[in-house]
Write a structure and sequence with these properties.
Strand content: 15-25%
Shape: globular
Radius of gyration: 17 Å
Order of helices and strands: EHEEHEEHEEEEHHH
Bound molecules: iron/sulfur cluster
Largest sheet: 5 strands, mixed
Helix content: 25-40%
Structural class: alpha+beta
Oligomer: single chain
Number of helices: 6
Strand order of the largest sheet: 5-6-7-8-9
CATH topology of the largest domain: Sulfite Reductase Hemoprotein, domain 1
CATH class of the largest domain: Alpha Beta
Length: 202
Amino acid sequence: MENKIKIAVNGGIGFGSKLNSKQLMTISKYMSEEDELELTTFQQLYIEIPEDNKDEVIKEFESVGLKCYPVGNYVKSLRTCNFCKGEEREGMPVAKEINRRIAGKPVPFTLKVAYTGCIIGCGEPMLSDIGVMKYKDHYNLYVGGKAKGKDAEVGSLLKENLTPEELYDTVEKIIAVYAEMGKKRETFHKFLKRIGKEQLKS
Ligand code: SF4
């Protein structure tokens, strides 16, 4: 029997988490009638593909606009709102750039980063490890949200009024610090409690 590897796919960042029929048909080419597709809370689908020709399959997926990411202890693809007020006004290019820079980076434990285009907050940034909220022409950055468990917690503001460049830089630095200083399988929430928000800020 051929070895399979699990990957995560989605349609990339756009107006809502959508997949078109061509993308679905391409995915189904690699599924038998008994196979299942797992829909995760990260706005990703998990699919198992043959390990031996993983690269060609990913290339084929990407040719129809699917984005492919690793599964496991990596930064997940950016969870976003639906950008209902428009691409530019709600900063979709900024969300795409954040995703390009961070998604798939190895970290001690799965890291959830969320983006929301206005203060209504449909992208749930306060319940993610790292959350970005566009406010007027700038960006506010939250850390430490925890959606799961009895000890669920709302994140708190780390920095506000950031330009896109300042935002990219800060998010990348936070992830680099976590990747370097986090203990094996230590969640970002625990890591933040251990080192403290002020140290992270500095
Ligand atoms: S957060 Fe704002 S821009 Fe994004 S979907 Fe909600 S209301 Fe629309």
